[in-house]
Design brief:
Helicase, Ruva Protein, domain 3; globular; about 250 residues; alpha/beta; 2 domains; 11 helices; Alpha/beta knot; about 10% strand; seven-stranded parallel sheet
């Protein structure tokens, strides 16, 4: 059961500069039973240093999928966690590693998939990338020296997830009847439809955005929409456009 759940967890590395960090991440993942690795525009890959640092987890490197864009890498994921040590002007829902593990278990038990995203060594995730995430994980490091190697961060978070999943799958829990969460790709379609609708009903001026869409994305991300809720939301937006004499392009 644990192995089956773990197959629905993807680790995504964005813009990794040093190939050794990719290999070390693969090793950290394998020790915790994770095997889905996605790479977004790695600077150097494949590379002998990555294989050497994997130390026996080179099968994960062989199966790793390389993507040209972050959106493409997470399009099939239902709940996306970004990781960051920086404070943001518009804070995203924030979890520590143990709290995120509980959320991961909840998503997996609903039959949905999770992506754990780790940004660039020097700058982490851009705000535009963070907007594609449902929530953020922050490891409570020493504030006077908060720098943490990517593979170490992967190890900490994946350990908490494994510990939580072992605890939950070891008990006789009732089967969930929760609907599957929508994929990240569906979520981006909803955001496009929402922005279009708000423009059609004269609520949103794209020339003076004032961070409205970013705040709305944060609000929707917190809910974790399932398929039924997604269809209801799309239906409401279409009805609002029809009432305004408009037709959706999404």
């Amino acid at each position: 059961m644990l192995m089956q759940l773990s197959k629905n967890i993807k680790v995504v590395l964005v813009g990794t500069t040093h190939p050794g960090n990719i290999g070390a991440t693969a090793r950290a993942m394998k020790t915790m039973g994770l095997n889905q690795l996605a790479l977004v525009n790695p600077k150097i890959y494949p590379d002998a240093e990555a294989t050497a640092r994997a130390s026996g987890a080179d099968d994960l490197l062989a199966d790793a999928v390389v993507f040209d864009s972050f959106a493409e890498a997470i399009s099939d994921s239902h709940f996306v966690f970004g990781t960051s040590t920086r404070e943001r002007s518009i804070p995203w829902p924030l979890f520590d590693p143990a709290e995120s593990a509980d959320k991961v278990a909840e998503v997996l038990n609903a039959g949905s998939s999770v992506a754990l995203v780790f940004g660039r060594e020097s700058s982490g995730l851009a705000n535009e990338e963070l907007e594609l995430c449902n929530a953020m994980i922050q490891i409570p490091t020493n504030p006077d020296f908060s720098s943490l190697n990517i593979a170490s961060a992967v190890q900490i978070i994946s350990y908490e997830i494994r510990k939580t999943l072992i605890g939950k799958t070891g008990s006789d829990e009732e089967e969930t009847t929760q609907d599957s969460l929508v994929s990240n790709e569906q979520l981006q379609l909803l955001y496009s439809h929402l922005e279009e609708c708000l423009i059609d009903i004269d609520y949103f001026d794209p020339d003076k955005p004032r961070r409205l869409m970013r705040r709305l994305k944060r609000m929707i991300n917190r809910t974790g929409l399932d398929d039924n809720e997604y269809n209801i939301a799309r239906g409401i937006l279409s009805a609002a456009q029809q009432a305004a004499g408009k037709k959706s392009a999404n």
